[in-house]
Specification:
By secondary structure, the chain is of the alpha/beta class. It contains 15 helices and 14 strands. It has two domains: 146 residues, Aspartate Aminotransferase, domain 1 (Alpha-Beta Complex); 224 residues, Aspartate Aminotransferase, domain 2 (3-Layer(aba) Sandwich), CATH 3.40.640. The strands form four sheets. Strands 2-10-9-8-7-3-4 form a seven-stranded mixed beta sheet. The structure holds pyridoxal-5'-phosphate.
Length: 385
């Protein structure tokens, strides 16, 4: 059932609305932006088809069932009890980060962040005149560590936590989160926790929403989530913030400031409700498929491309590849795009620590992973001749 669901390629070049599949020339295999090449669960398509029966598509708001589906999901998956009224719907996690940074901080304030990080997130503080305080995500014997993050927080007004972390796939342990949360309490630091990849954690790790640690931590936390990564719904533009502190929620909502819409994506709401109400079995099957893909990717890269370094991601369908020993320059993604016709995400876009790296998206049928590895291996072999 799993390979039938996830192993069969679907046509993503037609219609030509996929950014991933239409940005590059037709002979390029795209393994970049963070969406998957999996067909969404049938329950989502059925819910959307049913909604199309009523041909009225005016401004929309979440209904009770949508809020309850999310509250139920957070309770069942993370043992995290929140109220329907704690949810603020937004067009995605990025607008939520912008709203929080712009609406809750003042120019010159410091924002601690683990680098490298997904480009639009690490660029966000400077959009609001804020100072980013970087802490490197450093590889260690047990995976990626926290580097100097605790020290960075002690100089900051806010922490932007990306958990699971993009691009490394690091899942912060409960112990790490407790340490971070206690510094944030001690230093009175606001926590913006981007948890959009949290439903795709691999066996051996668990996702802990930082706000679930205690009511006191929740009171200083804005958690950003969506069904986008888990259910491949990012084009529908719907996410939500979980904010249990009423005053913090009021200030976050006020930060819409006419730039972020106050009404929501209608089809995003329909799909999100179906995903969280009916998608758990599909999610589990997807994690099983992705776990095997991750193991396959790591084993094959190590076997076939001596010199490439990577730490198996603990979550999601992205892997962070270190090509520095292979002499492909600062931006190996550019070299591989030209010579191997594989479109990876360029490491330098992830900021400090990104040079010499590239990110691969393996959220696709395994045949495409093999094709990408074949192409990369061939290009490197030809270079050696
Ligand atoms: C960690 C992280 N946060 C946010 C986003 C963007 O989310 P959204 O489309 O909900 O704005 C991405 C997309 O790749 C991401 O990886």
């Amino acid at each position: 059932m799993r390979s039938a669901l996830f192993g069969r390629p679907i046509d993503r070049r037609n219609p030509a609305d996929s950014v991933k599949w239409n940005r590059y020339a037709d002979d390029v295999l795209p393994m970049w932006i963070a969406d998957t090449d999996f067909a969404v669960p049938e329950a989502i398509v059925a819910a959307m088809a049913e909604r199309l029966q009523n041909p009225a598509f005016g401004y929309a708001m979440p209904d009770r069932q949508t809020r309850e589906a999310i509250v139920g999901w957070l309770s069942a998956r993370y043992g995290w009890q929140v109220s329907a009224s704690d949810l603020v719907f937004i067009p995605g996690a990025l607008p939520g980060i912008a709203m929080a940074l712009g609406g809750l901080l003042s120019p010159g304030d410091g924002v601690a962040m683990q680098m490298p990080t997904y480009g639009p997130i690490h660029a966000a503080p400077s959009n609001w005149g804020l100072c980013r305080i970087d802490a490197l995500v450093e590889p260690g014997p047990d995976g990626y560590g926290m580097g100097d993050l605790e020290e960075a927080i002690s100089r900051a007004r806010a922490l932007v936590l990306c958990n699971p972390h993009n691009p490394t796939g690091k899942v912060y342990s409960r112990e790490e989160l407790i340490r971070l949360a206690s510094i944030c309490e001690r230093e009175d630091v606001l926590i913006l926790s981007d948890e959009v990849h949290c439903d795709l954690v691999y066996p051996g790790r668990e996702h802990v929403p930082i706000a679930s640690l205690s009511p006191e931590i929740a009171a200083r936390t804005i958690t950003l989530m969506s069904a986008g990564k888990t259910f491949n719904l990012s084009g529908l533009k719907l996410g939500f913030a979980v904010i249990t502190n009423k005053e913090l929620r009021r200030r976050f909502v006020a930060a819409h400031r006419g730039m972020v819409p106050r009404t929501d994506s209608l089809m995003g709401l329909v799909a999100t409700r179906a995903a969280f109400a009916e998608g758990e079995a599909w999610r589990r099957a997807q994690v099983d498929y992705l776990t095997a893909s991750r193991d396959h990717l790591v084993a094959e890269l190590v076997r076939r491309i001596p010199g490439v370094r990577l730490i198996a991601p603990q979550a999601s369908f992205l892997a962070w590849l270190d090509f520095r020993d292979l002499g492909l320059g600062d931006d190996p993604g550019a070299w591989l795009l030209e010579k191997a016709r594989v479109g990876l995400s360029p490491g330098p876009e992830f900021g400090t620590g990104g040079v010499g790296h590239a990110r691969i998206n393996f959220g696709c049928p395994r045949v495409l992973i093999d094709e990408a590895i074949d192409r990369i291996t061939r290009a490197l072999d030809q270079r050696a001749v």
